[in-house]
Write a structure and sequence with these properties.
Blueprint: H1 11-22, H2 32-48, E1 52-60, E2 65-73, E3 79-85, H3 92-102, E4 108-113, E5 116-121, E6 124-130, H4 134-146, H5 150-183, H6 185-201, H7 208-228, H8 234-237, H9 239-252, H10 258-261, H11 266-277, H12 282-300, H13 302-308, H14 315-333, E7 343-346, H15 353-366, H16 370-376, E8 378-382, H17 385-403, E9 412-414, H18 433-444, E10 447-452, H19 473-484, H20 498-509, E11 514-521, H21 531-540, E12 543-550, H22 561-564, E13 573-580, E14 588-593, H23 600-610, E15 619-621
Parallel strand pairs: 3-4, 7-8, 7-10, 8-9, 10-11, 12-14
Antiparallel strand pairs: 1-2, 2-3, 4-5, 5-6, 11-13, 12-13, 14-15
C-alpha cells in the first residue's frame, strides 16, 4: 500500500508557501498565479512514491475529450489520482459539481484553489480543507496519494496471484502437451510443422521445448491481446498468430478447452482488462501493456527474461533519440525521417515504442509521407512472440490514429536479427510465406538508419542457471576480427555481450553512409576490454555522440538501480549516436556525462530539456593511443 511520507516543514511545502507570500499574502485572482507552485508540490510528492505527475492529462467523457490539470500515474501507468486548479474567487463546491457533471472522474480528484481544497473520492466530497494552514495541506495530500481504488487493489492482488499461479498453469499446459504428443496425431503433425518454421525463422538449433514454451505463452496471453486491443480478428489477421492457432486448434480437438483450463487466471485477466480501461490515451495503454508484459515474464520465465533483457526504454530516451536522428539527417545529409529513400530499421523492436515515435515524427514533418513510409521504408524485427504481438498492434494503431485508416503493418518480422547475417540455408523460409516475404524485403532494403534498444544482459546475475547467450558465427566472427583483434586486453569476454554484437552488426548494416542510434550498456566507453572497439568506432564513423547516463551500481554500490539508473537496472547506460558520412574521416567524439549521483529523474528531465543532440552541452574529446 502506498504511503506518502511528508511533513509540514518539508522544503517543497515551505517553498509553496513562500511563493504564496511573495505573490500577495494569499490573495489571488487567478489560478495561474499559484498553479505552478502547487504543481511543484504534487511533483515532489509523486517522486517520493515513484509516480509521475502528467500535466494537461486527457480524459474521455461521453462525447468529447476533457483535460485535467494533472494526473498522478504509478509505475504501471495507472491513474491513481487527479488534480484540477481553480481561481480563489470561484465557488469551489459549485466548480466541483460543474466538473463532475461534465464527466470529470470522481474516484480520487483534488480540486485546489490558493486557500482551499476539496478532495472528491467515490463521487463524494471526502475532505474540505483550508490549505492556508500547512498541516491541512499535508493531510489532504496524504489522503490523495494513499487512496486505493477498487480496480487498483484488484490489480495489485492479481499480479501477486499471477506470479504464484502462472508457473503452475505452465506446468499443467506442458503436461497436457506431452499427453497430446502421445495420443493426438493431428497435434503431433501441426506441432512438428510449427517447429520446422521456427527453426527456419528464429534459430536453427531451437528445441521442441522452446517451441512448447512459445505455445504456452500464446495460450496464456492471447486473451489479453484480443480483449485489451479489442480486435476480434487478432487470431486470423496476424501472420504468426495464425500459425500458432493451427497448433492450438489441433490441441483443442483432443481434450483441451482453453477457457476452462484458464479459469483460475480469470481474476488476473479481468484486472488487466479493467485497469487498461482506465488508460485515457492509447499511449498510456501501450505503456501499461509493456508493464503487464514485463510482469508476465517475471512470473512465467525469469530465465528467459534474463536472456533477452526484458527492459523497455523510458519515453524521454526514445523522444531524444528519434529527434536527434531527425536533426542529424537534416544537418549532415539534407534529409529527414519523412523523406523517400531513408529506410529505417529497429532490429530489436520490443513492443514498438521506437517505430511508433518515428511515425509521430514523420507525421509532424510531413503527414502525407507517412503512408508511403509505413508501407515501404519502416522495418523492425522481434525474436520473442509476446512483444511481437504488442508491437504489431501498437504500430498499426498509431497508423490508424494518424491517418484514420487501418492497414496491417508489413514491416515487422518475427525473426532473430543476428540470424539474418548468417548465410541462407537452402530456400529462404521464415515462419510463414508472408513473414518470409517480409524478411526478404527487409534484407534487400538499403537501410540508412538503425535505431533501438538491443539486449543489455552483460554478466547475467544468475550465471548458475546456465543461461548463456547463443552464438552467431557471422556476427561473432566480425566482432572477433575487429574489436577483439585490435584489443590489447588479455580478457575479452565482455566483447561477447549482445549489445556489442548489436553495434558491430548495425555498423555493417548501414553501408557507406547512415546513422546508428542505440541505447546500450555504457561499458564500452572506458573499460579496458573495449579498447579495440573504440578504435574501430573511430575508424567506422565520422561523428560519434555518446551521452553517458551512468548508473552502474556494480561499479559504485553507493548508487541505487531504482534511483540512479534510467532503466532501474544494475549496469550503466549510454545513448550512442554514430554518424557515417561519405568522406569517412576519423571520427570526432562528442561526449556528455551526468554527475555520478544524478538521479533517474534528473537525467530523464535533462533529456526532455535538451530536446535532441543539438541542445546538449557536448565536450569534444581528443582520442589518444591509449584508446
Amino acid at each position: 500500500m502506498t504511503q506518502l511520507s511528508i511533513r509540514p516543514g518539508d522544503k517543497f511545502i515551505s517553498n509553496y508557501y513562500e511563493v504564496l507570500t511573495r505573490s500577495g499574502q494569499l490573495h489571488f485572482d487567478h489560478e495561474g498565479n499559484v498553479r505552478g507552485a502547487f504543481q511543484a508540490v504534487l511533483r515532489a510528492c509523486a517522486k517520493r512514491v515513484s509516480w509521475d505527475l502528467v500535466t494537461e492529462f486527457p480524459i474521455k467523457a461521453s462525447k468529447t475529450t476533457l483535460r485535467v490539470d494533472g494526473a498522478l500515474l504509478d509505475e504501471s501507468r495507472l491513474v491513481r489520482g487527479m488534480w484540477e486548479a481553480k481561481d480563489e474567487r470561484d465557488d469551489l463546491e459549485k466548480e466541483v459539481r460543474k466538473k463532475l457533471n461534465l464527466g470529470y472522474p470522481g474516484r480520487n480528484i483534488l480540486f485546489q484553489a490558493p486557500q482551499s481544497a476539496i478532495l472528491v473520492q467515490h463521487g463524494q466530497i471526502a475532505r474540505k480543507e483550508d490549505i492556508s494552514q500547512r498541516d491541512a495541506l499535508v493531510d489532504v495530500l496524504k489522503d490523495l496519494f494513499e487512496y486505493r481504488d477498487r480496480h487498483i487493489m484488484d490489480w495489485e492482488d492479481a499480479v501477486a496471484r499471477f506470479k504464484e499461479e502462472v508457473p503452475e498453469q505452465s506446468r499443467a499446459l506442458k503436461e497436457l502437451i506431452d499427453r497430446e504428443h502421445k495420443k493426438n496425431a493431428a497435434f503431433r503433425e501441426a506441432f512438428a510443422a510449427f517447429v520446422e518454421t521456427c527453426r527456419a525463422s528464429l534459430n536453427p538449433q531451437i528445441t521442441d521445448e522452446a517451441v512448447e514454451k512459445m505455445l504456452v505463452q500464446h495460450i496464456l496471453t492471447e486473451r489479453i491481446f484480443s480483449r485489451v486491443f479489442q480486435n476480434d480478428d487478432f487470431r486470423t489477421r496476424n501472420v504468426v498468430v495464425a500459425e500458432l492457432e493451427k497448433v492450438v486448434t489441433a490441441l483443442i480437438k483432443g481434450s483441451f478447452n482453453r477457457h476452462d483450463f484458464l479459469r483460475s487466471l480469470d481474476p488476473f485477466y479481468k484486472a488487466i482488462e479493467t485497469s487498461a480501461e482506465q488508460a485515457s490515451t492509447y499511449e498510456e495503454k501501450q505503456t501499461f501493456l509493456n508493464t503487464v508484459y514485463e510482469r508476465f515474464f517475471q512470473g512465467y520465465s525469469p530465465k528467459e527474461a534474463d536472456t533477452h533483457g526484458i527492459v523497455y526504454t523510458p519515453q524521454p530516451i526514445v523522444d531524444f533519440m528519434v529527434r536527434s536522428v531527425d536533426d542529424i539527417l537534416k544537418k549532415e545529409f539534407g534529409k529527414s525521417l519523412a523523406d523517400h529513400g531513408v529506410h529505417i530499421l529497429d532490429p530489436f523492436v520490443g513492443t514498438g515504442n521506437f517505430i511508433v515515435r518515428i511515425m509521430k515524427q514523420i507525421a509532424q514533418t510531413k503527414k502525407s509521407a507517412l503512408k508511403y513510409k509505413y508501407e515501404n521504408e519502416l522495418h523492425c524485427n522481434e525474436v520473442m512472440l509476446l512483444p511481437y504481438y504488442i508491437a504489431s498492434m501498437n504500430i498499426e494503431h498509431e497508423f490508424l490514429e494518424q491517418t484514420g485508416e487501418y492497414r496491417p503493418f508489413e514491416g515487422i518480422c518475427l525473426v532473430d536479427t543476428f540470424e539474418l547475417a548468417e548465410p541462407e540455408q537452402g530456400a529462404l523460409s521464415f515462419m510463414s510465406e508472408e513473414n518470409t516475404a517480409r524478411v526478404k524485403k527487409q534484407k534487400e532494403a538499403p537501410i540508412f538508419v538503425v535505431v533501438g534498444n538491443p539486449p543489455y544482459n552483460a554478466n547475467q546475475q544468475n550465471e548458475n542457471a546456465n543461461n548463456k547467450n547463443r552464438r552467431y558465427p557471422v556476427v561473432d566472427r566480425r566482432v572477433s576480427e575487429t574489436y577483439v583483434h585490435d584489443s590489447r586486453a588479455t580478457n575479452n569476454n565482455a566483447l561477447s555481450d549482445p549489445y556489442v554484437k548489436a553495434i558491430r552488426w548495425a555498423s555493417d548494416r548501414i553501408g557507406k553512409t547512415g546513422i546508428v542510434a542505440l541505447v546500450t550498456n555504457n561499458s564500452f566507453v572506458d573499460d579496458v576490454a573495449f579498447d579495440g572497439m573504440r578504435k574501430h568506432l573511430l575508424a567506422d564513423f565520422t561523428s560519434i555522440y555518446v551521452l553517458d547516463l551512468g548508473g552502474n551500481v556494480r561499479k559504485n554500490p553507493k548508487l541505487s538501480g531504482t534511483t540512479h539508473n534510467v532503466f532501474g537496472i544494475q549496469v550503466g547506460v549510454s545513448i550512442s549516436l554514430l554518424v557515417r558520412t561519405p568522406e569517412r574521416l576519423d571520427g570526432k567524439v562528442h561526449y556528455l556525462r551526468f554527475a555520478e549521483n544524478a538521479t533517474q529523474f534528473t537525467k530523464l528531465e535533462a533529456l526532455e530539456t535538451f530536446g535532441s543532440y543539438e541542445g546538449a552541452p557536448w565536450t569534444l574529446l581528443v582520442p589518444n593511443n591509449n584508446r
